[in-house]
Design goal:
Number of strands: 17
CATH class of the largest domain: Mainly Alpha
Strand order of the largest sheet: 14-3-16-15
Distance between the termini: 60 Å
Largest sheet: 4 strands, antiparallel
Number of domains: 4
């Protein structure tokens, strides 16, 4: 609970001073017109509008970047683009609805999100890296412009965190639902089955040249050769700039004299408190908390033990069990009302009346106090030495990175020359596809994205923690259809797999028919076909059936059709299985009390998702019927047709 009422004011004032001028200003310039403002006159790349806000081909292309780089077939890409258009329309609708409800966060909220989510990257040592470095980071790591990145943050905070919460907070879960889910997860069934293994039938498959050619012709997309790219890469690791640094006593003393604020020990106090919570309580409940606080204060003033009363009454789960001990706190750590009351006490003194904060009523005792001071140089000498070494090392590393990038830009595709000049590690890889990454290539997701998304011939950089990768792709080997001769062996194996699976399925269907003709006689029918019937122990939904694998592969019929009726065949791996459930075992409910909250949370999450999905669908329909959604059907169809070429 201490963290809940620590003062956020200092941090936010600093964030606003640092970020709002450097980051949020760019949000106002690059983000807000794209999100809040109208699109202007409709142009050919505007596919739809929601209340004057456009969905453009550029917006869709951002959503499709990953699919394009994975060489998705044109027909599938067109379908994905259609889905992306509808999703973007829904996003605009939800944002418009959230705006009408006053749920859109401010620039301060966006800046705070950046500060909290990316502290080490954008604010190393507490200092903003600057607008240029910020833009470079966004482009390298997210493959977005700053405007696109910030709009995604704005939409996410607005729709997913604020609007979703408002829409779904009414969801609740009954005890009956929890009990049903418990049994769904824990009831067990006993099944028996027989399986036909397709591998055992491969020798029975004919594979003539004509059949193989026909199979290849019917499955050409399956053998399409993905785009391939050769790579040259130079690595600037932290070790590349390492050296021994000599730090003189004079340098340490100068640093100490110029940075004494770093070594200040502010006035601090060792405190205990008893909290009577009022958050989310009615006026009557708040008044009751105040009366209870005054009653306990009277007991303390009469000499009762503070720690024992804290254990009995405090509603702060973080320290009630240890007698309300908050440890040492400094000025600026706590919310103002709590801080003013605490530092106004004498050692051993109680607050004369309950202290009201946004969290409730506090009874506070000051146990110890230390006045502010500055640590002597002798205490911090080695700390300063370490800081100066780290500062020089970092400066040298950044300088080496800048030289590496500058030299690489000059040498272009002759990256090996840049690496040789700087004495940096260099690797060269012949053309490879995204699905065939070389073993020696660093497995860094941003690097792989850059290899397949950056234009050929242009030097690119990817930063991963403290390592910089400088790379260049000299050319692109386009995706193409394979010719039969180069994939003939693969085609043969695929054909044998397909046809043997078809034979196995036919044999399993014949077995199932025999059993249905003579109900209940799976074992006899299986023996005639020289198949083995296996019976399981009781298995829950998340259990498995030994070599057959997870019981979930049999489908819900295994748990819902428990009357012994034959089911299947179903495909499990390379087998076709016929089965029946011969017995069901209800779960022991004794663990239900312990598991109920976890189950409640799971069901609640599902209900909230369903509620929000329904809300989303209804709002899109409502906005469409009222004319606030305008789809330019001819442009959409032209755009989707263009993708299929």
């Amino acid at each position: 609970m201490l963290k809940l009422f620590r003062n956020q004011g200092k941090a936010l004032r600093w964030i606003m001073g640092c970020i709002l001028f450097l980051v949020a200003a760019s949000m106002v310039i690059t983000l807000v017109p794209n999100v809040f403002g109208p699109a202007g006159p409709a142009s050919a790349d505007v596919l739809a509008e929601v209340g004057g806000v456009s969905v453009t081909t550029g917006d869709v292309e951002v959503e499709l970047r990953q699919y394009r780089s994975n060489e998705v077939p044109p027909e599938a890409l067109s379908m994905m683009a259609g889905n992306a258009i509808e999703n973007l329309i829904a996003e605009r609708v939800l944002f418009a609805e959230a705006t009408a409800l006053g749920l859109v966060p401010t620039e301060e909220d966006l800046a705070r999100w950046l500060r909290e989510q990316l502290p080490d990257v954008l604010f190393p040592d507490g200092k903003f890296v600057g607008a240029r470095a910020y833009e470079g980071f966004v482009r390298q790591q997210f493959r977005r412009s700053v405007a696109e990145f910030e709009r995604e943050i704005l939409y996410n905070l607005t729709i997913e965190m604020r609007l979703r919460r408002m829409v779904t907070d009414s969801a609740n879960v009954s005890e009956a639902e929890i009990k049903r889910r418990f049994h769904t997860q824990n009831d067990g069934v006993k099944v028996e089955w027989a399986a036909v293994d397709s591998d055992s039938l491969r020798s029975a498959v004919d594979a003539t040249p004509e059949q193989l050619q026909e199979y290849f012709d019917s499955n050409r997309l399956r053998y399409r050769q993905a785009e391939r790219r050769p790579l040259k890469i130079m690595t600037v690791s932290p070790e590349a700039a390492e050296q021994e640094y000599e730090i003189s006593d004079a340098e340490i003393e100068l640093y100490y004299s110029q940075n004494q604020y770093r070594f200040e020990q502010p006035e601090r106090a060792k405190l205990r408190h008893i909290l009577f919570m009022t958050t989310d309580k009615s006026e009557e409940e708040t008044e009751e908390a105040r009366r209870k606080a005054e009653e306990v204060l009277g007991q303390l003033q009469s000499g009762s033990d503070f720690a024992e009363l804290a254990k009995e009454h405090s509603e702060d789960p973080g320290n009630a069990d240890n007698g309300g001990d908050l440890g040492w706190v400094s000025r600026g750590d706590m919310v103002p009302a709590f801080e003013d009351a605490s530092f106004g006490l004498q050692v051993g003194e109680l607050s004369p009346q309950p202290v009201k904060t946004e969290f409730g009523y506090h009874l506070i005792r000051l146990d110890e106090r230390e006045s502010g001071s500055i640590k002597p140089l002798s205490e911090v000498r080695e700390v300063i030495r370490g800081d100066l070494v780290a500062e020089r090392s970092q400066s040298d590393r950044y300088a080496l990175m800048e030289r590496a990038l500058e030299t690489a830009q000059q040498t272009g595709t002759a990256l090996e020359s840049a690496a040789s000049q700087l004495g940096l590690p260099y690797q060269e890889f012949p053309p490879f596809a995204r699905s065939e990454l070389p073993d020696a290539l660093p497995k860094v997701a941003a690097l792989v994205r850059a290899i397949f998304e950056e234009p050929a011939g242009e030097v690119f950089t990817v930063a991963q923690e403290e390592t910089l990768y400088v790379g260049v792709v000299s050319e692109t080997v386009p995706a193409r259809d394979a010719v039969y001769e180069e994939v003939s062996s693969t085609v043969r194996e695929d054909y044998l797999d397909t046809e043997s699976a078809n034979l196995a399925r036919a044999r399993a269907e014949a077995l199932a028919q025999k059993v249905r003709d003579t109900p209940g006689n799976l074992a006899m029918a299986a023996r005639r076909d020289r198949l083995t019937v296996t019976t399981s122990d009781f298995v829950k939904r998340d259990g498995d059936l030994g070599e057959l694998g997870p019981i979930s592969a049999l489908g819900e019929d295994a748990f819902t059709k428990t009357d012994g009726e034959l089911q299947g065949p179903v495909a499990i791996g390379n087998q076709w299985v016929v089965f029946r459930t011969i017995e069901m075992q209800a779960a022991d409910e004794s663990p239900l009390a312990i598991e109920s909250e976890t189950i409640r949370g799971s069901i609640l999450g599902e209900k909230r998702n369903q509620l929000f999905d329904y809300f989303r669908m209804q709002k899109v329909q409502e906005y469409s019927e009222s004319g606030q959604v305008v789809r330019y059907g001819d442009r959409i169809q032209s755009y989707l047709r263009l993708m299929q070429r």
